[in-house]
Design brief:
325 residues
Length: 325
């Protein structure tokens, strides 16, 4: 299996897939090989793939996206690693994705949640709501991606490995300026102690050797301490882990008394909905969110307030409201 996993890693990195995709694909491929009794995948095929996916769904309920991840990993394995594309996958293993309305928070509810968060998580959530970022996009921001003059944020290698620009809320200008200055000072102190290294994307470390210790490549939300990187063979600083933010949001929403489930992505949904409410055209919202297709953005039209004059039939009954007694 080690040789197979090395082939998988090489195929993924040749195609410049994200590190998250690499980890996800490796995990599913390992599970598949174990399911096949440690036989090499080249000895298996459509029958084993179908049996594996069906076994997953029998073991525990799977969302359509999780099932789709497993199938995508195995399709990649056979097509791009083994050079033997699967001829046919039965329709039974293809997940049917449900179209669900996004959950949103109203501005007063966002205020309640923010009031119960502490830094730096509070600033992360403020950017999710104020700039429409995905959580991994916010945590991957580097200091050079924040343009305080133009009041924009550059999102690098977002979903689909695409770059885009989005707005920087004026309310955060002073806070971000102070944070950048603080992080630059911390970086200079780390340099004096022999540290101050950051992992760089792709082959940039070879092209710009000095960039690994350039403060501008530092994370806007760094982790608390350096960790040893076995590939780089040195201690480097990685960004804050997503779990830290997710747990803090979950606790803040619960303590605020909001009767709906809200996650980090809820603030991105709320960002889009508020822009549409304020009269922003849907194409602009699409660009700010980084959606490839405007139909993806149009789902937010379904959660806007009902039109003027539209009232429930119950609200126009002449009698008093129904008693709860």
């Amino acid at each position: 299996m080690p040789r197979l996993l090395e082939q998988v890693r090489a195929a993924i990195r040749t195609r410049h897939y994200s590190l998250r995709t690499e980890r996800t694909y490796r995990s599913w491929i390992i599970r598949y090989v174990r399911f096949c009794g440690l036989r090499h995948p080249a000895e298996c095929g459509e029958v084993e793939v179908k049996a594996f996916v069906e076994a997953l769904t029998r073991a525990r309920p799977l969302s359509a996206s999780t099932q789709g991840q497993a199938i995508a990993a195995l399709l990649f394995l056979y097509r791009d690693v083994l050079g033997r594309p699967l001829a046919r996958l039965p329709s039974v293993v293809r997940p049917k994705h449900a179209h669900r309305l996004p959950n949103i928070l109203e501005p007063p509810e966002v205020d309640l949640v923010l009031a119960r968060l502490t830094e730096p998580v509070k600033l992360v959530v403020a950017l999710l709501y104020g700039s429409g970022l995905r959580l991994n996009e916010a945590l991957s921001l580097r200091l050079k991606d924040i343009d305080l003059v133009r009041r924009t944020i550059v999102v690098r290698a977002g979903k689909g490995n695409k770059d885009r620009r989005t707005m920087l809320p004026e309310r955060l200008l002073d806070q971000l300026g102070a944070r950048i200055a603080e992080l630059r000072g911390g970086h200079l102190r780390a340099l004096q102690k022999g540290g101050g290294y950051y992992p760089l994307p792709d082959a940039l470390a070879a092209k710009l050797p000095g960039a690994v210790r350039d403060w501008r490549w530092g994370w806007l939300f760094p982790a608390r301490a350096d960790v040893y990187d076995r590939v780089l063979r040195r201690r480097v600083r990685y960004p804050l882990h997503a779990t830290t933010v997710q747990r803090a949001i979950s606790g803040a929403v619960r303590s605020s008394g909001i009767n709906r489930r809200a996650t980090a992505h809820t603030f991105r949904h709320s960002f889009a909905t508020q822009l549409l409410r304020s009269g922003c055209d849907i194409r602009t919202v699409q660009e700010l969110l980084g959606h490839v297709d405007v139909s993806t953005t149009m789902i937010y039209l379904h959660v806007l307030d009902r039109g003027p004059g539209v009232r429930s039939p119950l609200d126009v009954l002449p009698g008093p409201p129904p008693s709860s007694g």
